[in-house]
Structures are given as C-alpha cells and as structure tokens.
Amino acid sequence: NQPAFWKLLLERLEPQLDRSNWSEVNKTMYGPSSARAKAVAAAVVASHKRADPSLVFTKGQDGSVESPWGAYVGFSVNGRWSLYMQENLTFFYWRRGTRETYIAGFPIALTQVYPPGQEGVNLIAPVPDRIADPFTPSDTVVRTA
Questions:
Q1: How far apart are CA 128 and CA 6, in angstroms?
Q2: Where do the DSSP E strands lie in 20-132?
C-alpha cells in the first residue's frame, strides 16, 4: 500500500524526524477541480497551442486536460496551528508523430485556510501559465507505445 511505502521511505531517508507529528492525505481526500484549476489549465493549453501546435494534451474521462490534486498542509509553532491548502495540476502530453507520453505538474495555489482571514491570498505568484520546458528530462516519460 502506498502510505506504508512512503512512510518507510521517509523513515529511511530521514531517520531523525519526529514521527509523532506525521499525517497523510489519501486520494479519497482530494477535492474536485476548482475554478482556479480550470482557468490555469485553459491558460496552459492556450499558451502551448500558440507556441507549439504539435504538443497535444491527453484528455481525462471527464474531457478535461488538467488532473488537479491537492493537499492540506499544517504547521504548528509553539502549539499555534496554521493550515494551508496546496492546489496542483498535472498534465499528460505528447507530440504529434511520436509515441512517448510525458507528464508535468506544478503547484498553482497555496492559500492559508486556518486561522481565518487569509483565504483569498494565493502565496504562489505569479501563477504558472505554461509547462516551463516541455519534452525535456525535467518532465517524466510515462508511456512509450
């Protein structure tokens, strides 16, 4: 199971960490694609269609090109908690005439959700509007037909 794998890996890489503060987020805890995610995905696709028409984005079952995901992250300083929501987008893409599918992803938003008062402030600015360097080793080849 994936949570056990990541816990074991983290224990091996960072044995000095205090495990009493560990938590996890599973895919069943993710929320639906936000309006922000859809807008950023549209900007990414439009940017690449203008710059490189041979780049093709793979669509999901719902017809969208973005694969949103996120997690809540919490920090405690002297017993006072701050909670943040990080929203991310992942894209699968390929170039016409090739058989390799690439994957690229990046965070699009980090907003404080607790304590109240900063919910509307995105700490990631400017929000990315393109895959920085498509078809390079920075993106992972996930499938070769």
A1: 28
A2: 55-57, 67-77, 80-95, 100-114
